[in-house]
User: Which sequence fits this backbone?
C-alpha cells in the first residue's frame, strides 16, 4: 500500500446518479454508475481543490481485475481505479463497448 494512502470510511450520495453509497475506506467511485469525484491528490487525502465529477471512460482487464480510468470533466485529470465486486458489471461492459 502506498505510504501516501489515507483510508477514510465515508458514505456519500453519488452526484451523478443519486445512489446512496456505503463507503468501506477504499471506495473511490459509485458502484451503480461508476462515476467518481476529483477529491484527492493522494488517495484518501481529500486535498484536491477541483471537486469535479470524474467520468468512467475506459476499462482495461489486467489479470482478473478490471481497471477503470476516470477523467475529470472539470479539469481533465485522469486516474485509474480498480473495480469492485459491488460494481454494476453491465456498466463496466457498456464502457468496454
Assistant:
Amino acid at each position: 500500500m502506498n505510504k501516501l494512502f489515507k483510508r477514510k470510511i465515508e458514505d456519500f450520495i453519488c452526484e451523478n446518479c443519486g445512489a446512496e453509497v456505503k463507503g468501506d475506506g477504499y471506495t473511490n467511485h459509485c458502484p451503480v454508475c461508476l462515476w467518481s469525484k476529483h477529491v484527492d491528490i493522494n488517495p484518501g487525502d481529500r486535498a484536491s481543490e477541483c471537486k469535479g465529477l470524474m467520468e468512467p471512460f475506459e476499462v482495461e482487464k489486467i489479470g482478473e481485475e478490471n481497471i477503470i480510468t476516470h477523467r475529470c470533466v472539470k479539469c481533465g485529470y485522469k486516474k485509474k481505479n480498480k473495480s469492485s465486486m459491488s460494481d454494476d458489471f453491465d456498466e463496466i461492459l457498456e464502457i468496454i463497448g
Notes: Residues 12-96 form one domain. The mean pLDDT is 92. The chain is about 10% helix and 30% strand.
